[in-house]
Every structure is written in C-alpha cells, then in structure tokens.
Amino acid sequence: MRISRRQFIAASAAVTGSTLLWAKDEASAPSAYGAVPSPRVLRWQSMETNAFLHFSVNTFTNKEWGYGDEDPNDFNPTEFDPDQIMRTVKAGGMKGAILTCKHHDGFCLWPTKTTEHCIRNSKWRNGKGDVVRDLSEAAHRAGLKFGVYVSPWDRSNAAYATPAYITIYHEQIRELLTHYGPIFEIWFDGANGGDGYYGGAREKRHIGPDYYQWDKILALVHKLQPQTVIFGAAGDVRWIGNESGIAGDPCWSTFSVQKEKAQNDPHASENGGIDALNHGVRNGSIWKPAECDVSIRPGWFWHQDQNDKVKTPDQLIDLYFDSVGRGATLLLNVPPDNKGLIEPSDATSLSELHQRIEQMFAQNLASSAKLCASNVRGAGRRFNAHNLVDGDRETYWATDDAVTTPELTVDFGSTQQVAIFRLREAIALGQRIAAFSIDAWQDGGWKEIVQDTSIGNCRLIRLPQPVTTNKLRLRITDCPVALALAELSVFASV
Ligand code: FUL
User: Which of 2, 107, 358, 492 is the most exposed, having the fewest neighbouring CB atoms within 10 Å of its CB?
Assistant: First the structure.
C-alpha cells in the first residue's frame, strides 16, 4: 500500500503520541519583509571581505591621479608575480580581488583595441603583457573571485566629454567582461575632476547629466555577465560615503534613490546626502547594501615613502568591526609596488588580520549552550533556535507572525567570560529587526549589557569589558514582523 508523506507523518505522530508533529513541521516560512536582495547580491554579501588592487602607471610615477600624459613605458614592474599578489590576498582572508584595470589616467592594463594608451604600447614584455589576464588567472588559482575597476573618467582620451568616448568606454567594459572569465564585481568610480591631458588639449572638460548612459552600461553588464554585482549609484551596491572604511551605525542594507539622480551621479542618494549612503535608509524601497573602501596605506597607489605607514593589524581589526560588523562589505586596498609585488609590511598586516579574526571567532560558546526561545514558529523543529548555532546562514530561528518581540536565553551551564557577539538575519527575507538588547545574568538578576539597532547581514559587538556570566538573554525589542534570525554566536576572546 502506498501512503503519502503527510499520511506517513500523521501515522508516525500517532505512534509517538506527539499528535501535532506533522502540523508543527509543516509551518511555512515567514513572508519576506520590504526590499530583499537579488541572488547575486546575496552571494556578494556573504563574501564580506575583498581586496582592492590599485596598480597602474601611478605606481611608477608616484602619483595618485595620473594626468593622462604618461608614457606607456612608465609601466615597468620588474618582478611582477601575480601569484604572490593573489596568495597574499588569500592569506589575508579575502574572498575576491578587484583590480584597477583603468584608473582616471586612462592607461589600460590589458591590450585593449579601444586606445593606444595601454600596455600594448609599453616595452614591458615587449608589448605582449596583459596584467588583467595574469591577475585574473592567478586569482582563480588562489581560489579568489576577480573583479574589475574601470574608471568612467578618462584624463587621457581626446574624445572624453564627446559622444565618441561613450562608445569607447562601453567597449572597454565589453572587453573586460568578455575575455577574463567570471567577474564578481564591476566598480564604477564617481570621481570626475575636470582637468586632464585629453589627447594633448590639456584643459578642463565637464560632462552633462547621464553622459555615461548608465542604463546602457547596466544592460551591457547584465547581458554579458548576469552574476556581476555593480558598484555605484546606478547599480546593486552603494558607496559608504567615505574612504576611511567606516560604515554608519546603524547601517541598513535598504536604501532609496531617485532613478534620474542615480543615472547622473554615481554616488547619488535620495536626499543627496553622505549621511544616507553611510547609514542606509530603514525601510527604504530598494535593497542596496554598502561597501566600505579603504586603503591599507595613506594612498590608494603604492608610494615608497608610505612603506612605514601601513595600517597595523589592530587598526585593520577595528575597520573590520566598523564595516563587516555593521552589515557592510570591506573592500581593503593592498596596492602592489613598483616591482609588481605586495610589500612585506602590507602582507604581514593582512595575514595577521586574518589570523586574529580566525582566532577570535574560533569557538562559539553558544553552540554548546542550552537555547530556549519564548516562541518558535509553528512550535516545531524547522524554525527552532538551534538554527542560530548550526553555522548555516540560510536556516533561521523564526517566530509566529503574531510574535514580534520574542526572547531567547542562552544557558552555558557554567560561568563563562563573554566579550564578542555576532548576529545575522536571514537577509533573503529582508532586514526585519530594528532593535534588540542582550542581558547577562549577574548577581541574581538580568543586567542589560548591549542595546543596539540594525543586524542585517552581520552585526558584531565588542563589549567594552568582557562580562562573566552563566547565561545570556537576547531580547528583540523592535521588529515589525516575525523575526528570521540566522545566527547568534558568543565569543570569549578579544
Ligand atoms: C576614488 C578615486 O578618485 C581614487 O583614486 C580611488 O580609486 C578611490 C577608490 O576612488 O574616487
């Protein structure tokens, strides 16, 4: 006799005596709340830390913004080792690397057909070199994803600010997205400073609204590589509003932007303000998470006299907490030097950052604790509190629709020293929680030790001083709908 799964579960429930078993386990998932990420943005948010590689003629001319009149022979990395660069990035715990394939000076690091201002006209490797190919292949060998930065502003090109340049620029994007394998992110810089070489004109040039034709660029990127995440106002992810790598607190992944503004200004926000970029917009109409770009050195490009100004592992850890720990992504610039290598000072700081993070988050005290939730959706197993400690960001603790301010106790069974918390929402269902608190059991009562707001992709909290306790209580204090919390981790070390 064949029986359906439902009949089977009901029969088993009768046998075990837990008559509600089948009904409990079939509780349906909560509905999504507000704007939600697309699958490609969801994947991108899970990467959390990526490297930026500023490398071009500026590396050799000791500039930050090349004028566009550089000699292609300036580009001459004598010991270029793409594998050393990508191994170093990987040892830093980064998941991807984004190369400045063309910075504002217009010099292209690949043998483009669109301009003579490129590596093809350099004596380096007799004009046969292709830095984009070498680094993209080395990235994949190291197990990293590869991304491209291609500056809209081009201080070299004679056609800049005329319609002819747009054809050139779109073609450069096409070349990069066609010949170098999967590109996880394309970075559109908002800088448009005006003056430049422009084929010898040496003048200021200004561009009008929607000069770059972002609509066409987005369509081109989506057509060539639908999985590529686009950085910039017209795209999927937003600039954080500063270049010091610090997200606002709170920093919502939701945002709102007027389409027309976004087309004209790659860093636009609805109120035109840096503040909205930095904090996002609670309940904003679109999902547009933030990316925190910052350099490991004072400059974006390598400069000899900054070799002793590399950020320390402590400073990098702070940046990690101020970016990833507020739900944003960290894009940490590690610029190759004029030999074409990552300097030892940068490599050391980067790998120490990774080791410290690994140590810090090695042992989750909550995974062996007794978890007790005030409410579980459908009172069954599918959404119970153990989903918080299973290491899977897709499973989550959810409540019934009517219960929006639940509590959860985390009983260690013995006294522990706690110093760091990590929380994550199941963001595929939107950013739901607006405020929460954590209490520690001390001297026979609950004492509030954390009061905070946004969680989203990740919220890291470092207590000013470690707290000694045998149990904790998480209270969701503001959530418009049932919660969907994917992780609550507790760590001892600082
Ligand atoms: C800015 C540029 O002007 C800098 O040179 C650098 O590339 C930084 C990441 O973005 O807008």
Answer: 2
